[in-house]
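ok trying this again, last paste got cut off
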Amino acid sequence: MFKKILIANRGEIACRIIRTCKRMGVSTVAVYSAADADALHVRAADEAVAIGPAAAAESYLVIDKIIAAAKETGAEAVHPGFGFLSENAAFVEALDKAGLVFIGPPVKAIGAMGDKITSKKLAAEAAVSTVPGHPDAIDDEAEAVRIAGEIGYPVMIKASAGGGGKGMRVAAAETEVRDGLRSARNEARASFGDDRVFIEKFIEEPRHIEIQVLADAHGNTLHLGERECSIQRRHQKVVEEAPSPFLDAETRAAMGAQAVALAEAVDYRSAGTVEFIVDKNKNFYFLEMNTRIQVEHPVTELITSLDLVEWMIRIAAGEPLDFGQSDVQMNGWAVETRVYAEDPLRDFLPSIGRLVRYREPQPPEDEALTVRVDTGVEEGSEISMFYDPMIAKLVTHGPDRAGAIAAMQAALDAYCIRGINHNVAFLASVMTNPRFREGRLTTNFIAEEYPEGFKGVEADPATTDVLIAVAAILQHRRKEQETAISGQMDGHAEFDPSKPADWVVMLDHEPHARTVTPVEGAYRVTGGASNLLIETDGRLGDLLLPCFVDGRPVTVQVERRGPALRLGQAGITVEALVLSPQAAALAAMMPVKEPPDLSRFLLSPMPGLLMSLAVEEGQSVKAGEELAVVEAMKMENILRAERDGRVAKLHAGPGESLAVDQAILEFD
């Protein structure tokens, strides 16, 4: 076994690998860029080496710097995690030349499976079902349009060296092929240093289901069942679960057999994932093989009780698998949600900034349930524009699918993140979605269930009633605290916290009258659709308020914003202003301020880099014309004119870093 391993990655996967190494008694070396000098993975490792500036191309993607760090610290092996150099054959060759062990598959497998064009040819040779398409790289737009027409719309344009949704576009018409080809090639070049793309048929109503495989150097190859990854946004997985609610035993066995056959065809070693697209009739087609650990590997670990990172290390050290296919058992159900720094209300645009407050959900009291948080951040950490915006992976396990989903709902309610925008409310919305609960999933789930984008969770009367009651209770307790302060001015209003008090909770300028009555350590709140008895030990100022509502456990997120309270539960968020009846009557007379008119400006919808401007001052534009391209988190975003107009003034130029809502240009 290795004595010291260098982790050529950052963030949550680096922390994840470090945890397993510590349990195995293996020392760890972290590497970090200038942007990550204070990162959690740096402090978690036994040693850490600086490798360059913030940009990944100058740090985490520089092979010579990784090897130099390993040599400097005496590491014997390198674990790449996922992303960065994890599927780079040249990196593996360089490590081998330097006398270092790569904790992953051999060069042959990475080269064959890392290239989607080559992998599809090999899959066909291994009798693995493949999606109809053009197997070679596309050279120009005219060729792309011709091939797309031959395959039949819609088609998928995909980067040959791609992954994680980068360099991928769906096209349903010729113009979309032309735009998609350009954007896919640019993203592929920026993310992978390889701008080759190919085109294949886009399977409608598809499910994305993948098979986890393990293979050692002693001729043992097996699979660990499947993961359903159909809840995706822009081809990026958002929710994963294991097993799939769709597969039957026969289909599972057939997919597993093909995944194993493909791994054996390339002499695979280590952990890997064979991804399939599955139609409504359970026909499945090979998509690609990821020759690395997957982001969603925790759900497989929780249902199999196997540590995949540990087995990657053991296999790289030459150890054989000590179990066979018949020993693999799937117990219970696991669900994973990816918590991102993004704004779901603004089309999921990335959000950057500092985690001013950060509290992870605590383990559940029910021993049959598990809550796991894989993260690389902590309170005070910064989410920068240089890397993926994922904050954490929240994973739950229960005896069945319903139990795992219920545990996820509770964990999301108890996940406290302040300082940046995040997608927790959106994830909570998915968990309560009837179609999700029934397991009727496709990769179009988000587009179909949220056709106008995510507008927030619609507030149901029962949850709203609870949030109104909590707001009234918090104001009651705040008034109690104020009354207890000595040195009050003569004539201040008397308040007896032991007696009932009337409050008016304002939501969107609508008054909701409630009466709060203390009752033996709890509060009876009346005046709503139902009388509620709420017990809580939470204190004023707490970010999370755990309580029992008529005996039912509920966690309410609390954030004070000036005189108002921002309360959230089950993905529902309300802004509440609690007033006395007299103050509410006076507030009703106040005029409502109208928001400023910003329709003349093109505003940056996200923090990012202004890559290009397609217009000049004085130029007339038509609705739909390209105005600018903004890059954020390595993804290009084309901004187009919403209506006809004339450009009056440019407020930013190419190469400029933009803040969210910063003006790029102004129309007459």
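PB: full thing came through this time. The chain has a mean pLDDT of 93.
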